[in-house]
Amino acid sequence: MTRSPFAELGLALGVQLVMIVLITRLVGVHAWDDGAITLAFSRTFAESGLIALTSVSEVVEGYSSTAWFLINAAMALFRPGFEGAILASQVATGIFLGVATVFVWLIARHLGLRSRTRLAILLVFSLSGPAVSEVSNGMEMTLLTAAGLALFHALYVRENRLLLAVAIVVFLTTRFEAMIYYAALLAPLLLHGRYRNFILLAVAGMAVVALHGAVRYMVFGDVFPNPVHAKMHVPYSLSGLQGVKLRLIAAVEITATLLPLVLAVSALLLIPWNGLSGRLSALKPVRNDLLALAAPVVAVVLFAILIGKNWGYVGRMQFLALPFVLLIFGLVYDRLADPARAVSARPALVAACALTILFSWIVSARPPIAQMARTLSSGGGQVAEVYGTTPETYRRTGLAVDRLRQLVGKDTITFATPDVGGLALCCDRIRVVDLGLLASRKLAREGYAALPAILAEERPDAIEVHQHWGVNSKIYTIPEFRDNYQPVIIDRTRFYLRNEHAEKLIGERRAEWCAAEEADCAASALRTHRYVNSVTKLDDAAFLERKRVLMVGEVP
Question: Is 314 helix (H, G, I), strand (E, B) or coil?
Answer without folding.
Answer: coil
